Amino acid sequence: MPKWPRPKLRTPRPIRPHKGECTWVFVNDQFLNWDPEHQIKVRIVSARAYHALFMHNMCIRPTAEELENFGTPDFTIYNAGQFPCNRYTHYMTSSTSIDLNLARKEMVILGTQYAGEMKKGLFSVMHYLMPKRGILSLHSGCNMGKGGDVALFFGLSGTGKTTLSTDHNRFLVGDDEHCWSDNGVSNIEGGCYAKCIDLSKEKEPDIWNAIKFGTVLENIVFDEHTREVDYSDKSVTENTRASYPIEYIPNAKIPCVGPHPKNVILLACDAFGVLPPVSKLSLAQTMYHFISGYTALVAGTEDGIKEPTATFSACFGAAFIMLHPTKYAAMLAEKMQKHGATGWLVNTGWSGGSYGSGNRIKLSYTRKIIDAIHSGSLINANYIKTDVFGLEIPTEIEGVPSEILQPMNTWSDKNGYNDTLLKLAGLFKKNFEVFTNYKIGEDNSLTEEILAAGPNL
């Protein structure tokens, strides 16, 4: 690959390439990780202004002084997505190629103009580099209360990670990628990548107000004359997105760092409708559900998915992790135990039946549940234990109908509920079979505890 000259101006800066190539080449010099002790320098070389602006939003933007003294990057991306790769090359099956070379510290993108490939690629790099430093890399949102209490939100696309971590009553540390080191938590990115399907000012005012000059909107439909966006239009895909700098959120915590987390919240969009809206987890249960990474692929989130489908993604980010899932789980268990964090499983999916017969749990109810976790009132609530999954369910939460806290109560067909519960439990056990031979903890005791924390058939 050519060695592009380092820009002297604030990123992104276009550079004139040789005759016969694309008109402009844009170069961004930026950072990953707000913790200065563990910051990574990245350079993004792209052929489209769209890609340059996207990464300008998503990575940490250097000051003029930092840019002048940037030096040699730790990792470089070459994005020539408009140019297809040769699909007849050995091992190549299409004209799209995303190649990552850890030895050369380079990533090359060909044949796709999806800007998210750059974001995902750098996240994978962080999942490799950070654990080698004893730092846990996390696919999570993070916010902090005015009293300094930090919460992590794990969840795949469509579970509400960005929506629930963006809370105008709390400081936003970040919405998607974080590190947990001995210094506390830190955001990897400098921006947010929010879903905006059915977005409204009433439901999500912070995200709505963040969409302004400089924000990149993807896959949306707008009026050509008024340029007004129709956020309800799904004709392109339901996976519509907004990329904006984190400081567009008025209560963003700048710099994006915080103390050690008090609560670890695992979000699942349960399409079967049998998981409770909230459960308090033991440490072993937290590890079990963290490794499992259960949710449902919601239509539009993944290409080709037309109906929600149950899926498992280890550590809520199997596509990004570079080491075995149990490595990240062991690090999470150690940090939670050391700093006294509490684990929670929150279902943002269906209640009263499976997808097609039940209803999606109201966002207002989920927010009340999250508020109770933040305030500390939920940890001291009265609990009952469920069959099969052995989950601790609170009997009462202010602002949430008590009948929905126990899923069976919302199903008119009790036999159908039991059958569906056993079906989901079987899927959990089958998925976890691949992890049973891996040792977690020095004496392997944590492995046995985690296995026992799964569903009991």
From TrEMBL:
Subcellular location(s) of the protein: Cytoplasm
Question: What's the EC number here?
Answer: 4.1.1.49
Coiled-coil annotated spans: none
An MF annotation (GO) of this entry: ATP binding
Alphabetical list of Pfam families matching this protein: PEPCK_ATP (PF01293)
Kindly state which reaction or reactions the protein catalyses: oxaloacetate + ATP = phosphoenolpyruvate + ADP + CO2
**Pathway recorded for this protein:** Carbohydrate biosynthesis; gluconeogenesis
Q: Which UniProt keywords apply?
A: ATP-binding, Cytoplasm, Decarboxylase, Gluconeogenesis, Lyase, Nucleotide-binding
Query: Mind listing the GO biological process terms from this record?
Result: gluconeogenesis
Is Cytoplasm tagged as a keyword? yes
InterPro entries in alphabetical order = PEP_carboxykinase_ATP, PEP_carboxykinase_C, PEP_carboxykinase_N
Q: Which GO CC terms are listed, alphabetically? A: cytosol
The entry assigns this protein to a family as follows: Belongs to the phosphoenolpyruvate carboxykinase (ATP) family.
Q: Which HAMAP family match?
A: PEPCK_ATP
Q: What name does UniProt use for this protein?
A: phosphoenolpyruvate carboxykinase (ATP)
What organism does this protein naturally occur in? Amborella trichopoda
